[in-house]
Amino acid sequence: MDFWPEFLASCWGKEFVAGGFGGIAGLISGYPLDSIRVRQQNSKSGSAFNVFRHVVATEGPLSLYRGMAAPLASVTFQNAMVFQIYVSLSRTFDRNTPASDPPSYKGVALGGTAAGAIQSLIISPVELVKIQLQLQSKKHYHNNQTTNLKGPIDVTRRIFRHEGWIGIYRGLTVTVLRDAHSHGLYFWVYEYTREFLHPGCRKNGQESFQTMLIAGGLAGAVSWISCYPLDVVKTRLQAQSESKSAKYRGIVDCFRRSVREEGHGVLWRGVGTAVGRAFLVNGAIFTAYETALRFLCSNNGNDR
């Protein structure tokens, strides 16, 4: 019974729990837009509004939350881990900065890059299952047979049964390429923007909610723009049913064939939806994270 008070009193505990709260807030606030983005990326046409109207009319509004159980089950741990790894490594890469001062922007960028690469090991299988569920209609067709949807566990079992570990980690390489540099940019933009909007807040942690929302939103938008073509390729690779019957043989093949068949615009299809969602979601993530961190720190009688 003494574990949780001791855990929350530690640096690891506070950052970990605050990061988890941030992840949950971000997922719930942006999941419907994420479903629309995935459908846009995997189709040959259709604006966000048309996709939304078609999905709601044919499958009902709750279909926009289909597949949320998979990321929700892991998002707390994944986001908590990312924030904790980022905080730790930003200091590791910046040992010359005193502990009483915030890490340099170089340390922030390097720590974020490493955190993004590491978290890909968790998020890649989760996003594979999520995408498979998001792109299914009421029925799923496999080997010319119609089966009812049974959720993330059923999808995971089916992938393991037909493809094993290789199948469940389909898209890992492109996920690492997407998340490593985008997370470095993500944390750098957040730290730079909040300091610009509220000078001194990186050290005293007293920025306003407005600063958190704007800085978090901009960080999310900029990082998504930087990696969006890779995300389109990742979606298309992970949307395939089986590697044996896959349309694309890999990252380069998917990139080349998509551009050849649909033009360069395909790499940016759905970017408006993604950026809008990113601003909303990451504003919520950082606001929830910073708020939870303040609460945990104040309850332990310590400054941040």
From TrEMBL:
SUPFAM superfamilies (UniProt xref): Mitochondrial carrier (SSF103506)
Subcellular location: Mitochondrion membrane
Gene Ontology cellular-component terms listed: mitochondrial membrane
Gene3D superfamilies named in the record: Mitochondrial carrier domain
Any Pfam family hit: Mito_carr
Domain of life: Eukaryota
Membrane association type: Multi-pass membrane protein
Keywords noted in UniProt: Membrane, Mitochondrion, Repeat, Transmembrane, Transmembrane helix, Transport
MF terms (GO), sorted A to Z: transmembrane transporter activity
Chain positions of Solcar repeats: 13-92, 103-196, 207-295
Family: Belongs to the mitochondrial carrier (TC 2.A.29) family.
Designated name of the protein: Mitochondrial arginine transporter BAC2
Organism: Anisodus acutangulus
Lineage, opening ranks: Eukaryota, Viridiplantae, Streptophyta, Embryophyta, Tracheophyta
